[in-house]
Amino acid sequence: MPSRLWAVRRNELSEAWPHVEKLVTDALDHGTSRVGVKDVHDGIGTGRYQLWIAWGPAAEGIAVTEILDTEKERIASVFICVGKNLKEWLRHLSSIENWAKAEGCSVIEAWARPGWERVLKDYKKTHVQLEKNL
Fold first, then answer.
1. pLDDT digits (tens, 9 = 90+) for 20-50
2. Domain 4-119 carries which CATH code?
3. Measuring CA to CA, which residue among 42, 114, 56 is closest to residue 127?
4. Model pTM?
5. Alpha-carbon distance 96 to 78, whole Å?
6. Is the pLDDT of residue 131 over 70?
7. How far apart (Å, rounded) are the C-alpha atoms in residues 32 and 35?
8. Which of 48, 77, 80, 87 has the fewest CB atoms found within 10 Å of its own CB?
């Protein structure tokens, strides 16, 4: 059975969180995000972040987004995207893109590990993030 996309509302967070907490933790542990698990949880709870779950018999994949308003444009930023059975749920990205457009965003960006470049073929590389611990 194909997964369906669950756009988790703030009042649904307590129901959804037990199903995604490990995915969020794993994503943050393997990435370079400056936020922690509690930051993500609390951000979803306040509406700062949006949680998307590809739901089959269980949570197969998740994305966490944030809308950034700048002087020049409104940006939808995907800063967590992780799961298993990628081919089963990646199709939901188009629904997130449509949501971003409906929210007035002119661009959607994804901060991702290099392997995502091979998957998101209709996204173009505009920058490379380099960093050094001090």
1. 999 999 999 887 778 999 999 999 999 999 9
2. 3.40.630.30
3. 114
4. 0.89
5. 9
6. no
7. 9
8. 87
